[in-house]
Design goal:
- It comes from Aedes aegypti (Yellowfever mosquito).
- Keywords: Coiled coil.
- The longest helix is centred in the first third of the chain and has 104 residues.
- This protein is rod-shaped.
- The protein has 489 residues and is of the alpha+beta class.
- It is built from 17 helices and eight strands.
- It binds zinc ion (2 copies).
- The site of one zinc ion has 8 residues, from α4.
């Protein structure tokens, strides 16, 4: 490298300064070494050095100790933290496990539920299919019956019950309809086939709509009078009766004008023959009349005298719109017109006739037999009448007679008079009856005492017999009254 003069001089100076510095340093070191040597020669200094060394060692030892201690402390803490962590982790695991179990359980339950629902659905489907099959079968049998085959008549006649385990509904039995409908807690029995058809709510008229005005609380039916109702009914009757007559002879056609919804505009059609009713059912059920679909149901025979409100016929029904007996519309032509009091009279007459024939056929002794029962109503061990057994009460004729006898003798006699021969003069009859009655009583007494002496049990009841005699000596009327009281209790 070529250097110019200036640079050269600079370099020379630099090296010179360096040499000087080095020389000075050498001197200084030498001086220091000398001083050190001098100092080392001093025993105090040596002592000082030794002490310092010792101190330094102690310090380092202490430091070491401290470090060990801290380390141990750290280890302790670490251990603690580790255990804490482990605990936490265990807890977490447990929680997770629980959660999983819970989830599994829920899933299992859900699956089970689903299975059950599936099974229920399948069962429902099966039942539905069964029902449809039965229905089809029934329809087939019904169709066969309509063309004159009577093979399935017993099956077709079978009643369907809404609640077979309950008592029959009184109202349904009486009028063929019940205000509770299918929700009724009693049993509604609907025959599969019968002469009587019911078309619920078939006849409709605004006058029968029992609705309260929301603001005025007035009946909306007020504006309609009976004339309007009957005009409408006549039209309806003429329209409908021909259709129903086309299936066969009818013996009754009654339409209700009640306000209660389950009796409003109900049409009862009674055929003379079941097959005609079946034909009408087949044709009319589900058909439309004045854009209203008809529902036709069979009903068990109705006792009209018990179902129709007789007071309404005389326009004296107190219950008005809430009456539960049938209020019938009067049919416009004389056909199938229902006269409640005529019906009632004829029903009573036939009842009376049957009663009379029963009484004529039986003599008193016939009616009273068996003797055991007879002993119950008047003969007894005490002034009180023995309670008759329930079985003996169940026969209607004997119970009726017994009731008569428990009354005062006059009334009993008079009732008998009426039933046997009312044409005889009453007083003669009465005296004759009295004497006859006395004779009979004596005879009975004899018979009774005979039967007593025969039975071994009776021997020990001698005292009782005495008592009985005594009691009989009392006025018979008071004892009878007493017994009556007891029986009513
Ligand atoms: Zn009911
Ligand atoms: Zn009434």
């Amino acid at each position: 490298m070529a250097m110019n003069r200036k640079q050269w001089r600079k370099y020379i100076k630099k090296t010179r300064r360096k040499k000087i510095r080095q020389k000075l340093a050498q001197h200084r070191d030498a001086a220091e070494a000398k001083a050190e040597a001098l100092r080392l020669a001093d025993p105090d200094y040596v002592m000082y050095l030794r002490e310092r060394e010792q101190l330094e060692r102690m310090a380092s030892e202490w430091e070491e100790e401290r470090r060990r201690f801290e380390n141990a402390l750290w280890l302790d803490r670490e251990k603690e933290a580790q255990s804490l962590f482990a605990e936490k982790r265990q807890k977490l695991e447990e929680e997770q496990r629980d959660e999983k179990e819970k989830r599994d359980r829920i899933r299992k339950e859900f699956e089970e539920m689903e299975m059950k629902a599936k099974a229920a659905k399948a069962e429902k489907e099966r039942l539905l299919q069964e029902f449809l099959k039965k229905q089809q079968e029934r329809e087939r049998m019904f169709a066969e019956y309509l063309v004159g085959i009577d093979d399935h008549l017993p099956v077709l006649r079978e009643s369907s019950h809404s609640r077979p385990d309950r008592n029959p509904c009184v109202f349904f039995g009486k009028v063929g309809a019940c205000r509770f409908g299918v929700r009724c807690s009693s049993d509604h029995a609907i025959p599969g086939l019968s002469e009587l058809l019911l078309l619920p709510n078939f006849f409709a008229h605004p006058a029968l709509d029992h609705q309260q005005h929301p603001e005025y609380g007035l009946d909306s039916s007020i504006e309609f009078d009976d004339d309007e109702l009957y005009r409408s009914y006549t039209e309806f009757f003429m329209d409908v009766i021909e259709e129903f007559e086309s299936f066969g002879p009818i013996s009754g056609f009654f339409v209700t004008r009640n306000f209660e919804p389950h009796l409003r505009g109900n049409v009862y059609v009674q055929y003379e023959k079941v097959r005609d009713a079946a034909k009408a059912y087949q044709r009319m059920n589900g058909r439309f009349y004045a854009s209203k679909q008809l529902r036709v149901e069979f009903r068990a025979p109705i006792v009209w005298t018990a179902a129709v409100c007789g007071l309404f016929e005389r326009s004296r029904c107190q219950k008005g719109k809430s009456c539960n007996y049938l209020h019938l519309l009067v049919n416009p032509v004389a056909k199938y017109r229902y006269d409640h009091f005529k019906e009632l009279q004829s029903a009573r007459q036939s009842q009376r006739q049957s009663q009379r024939s029963q009484l004529i056929e039986r003599s008193w002794d016939d009616v009273d037999i068996p003797a055991k029962q007879r002993a119950n109503w008047r003969w007894s061990e005490t002034p009180e009448v023995e309670q008759p057994s329930h079985k003996s009460r169940s026969t209607s004729t004997t119970s009726g007679l017994r009731k008569n006898r428990s009354r005062s003798r006059e009334s009993a006699d008079s009732s008998r008079n009426r039933s046997s021969s009312s044409r005889r003069s009453r007083s003669r009859n009465r005296s004759r009856h009295r004497s006859r009655e006395r004779d009979r009583r004596e005879e009975k007494q004899k018979r009774h005492s005979r039967s007593r002496s025969r039975s071994p049990e009776r021997k020990k009841s001698k005292t009782k017999k005495k008592k009985r005699n005594r009691s009989r000596s009392r006025s018979s009327r008071t004892s009878r009254e007493k017994s009556k009281k007891k029986s009513t209790k």
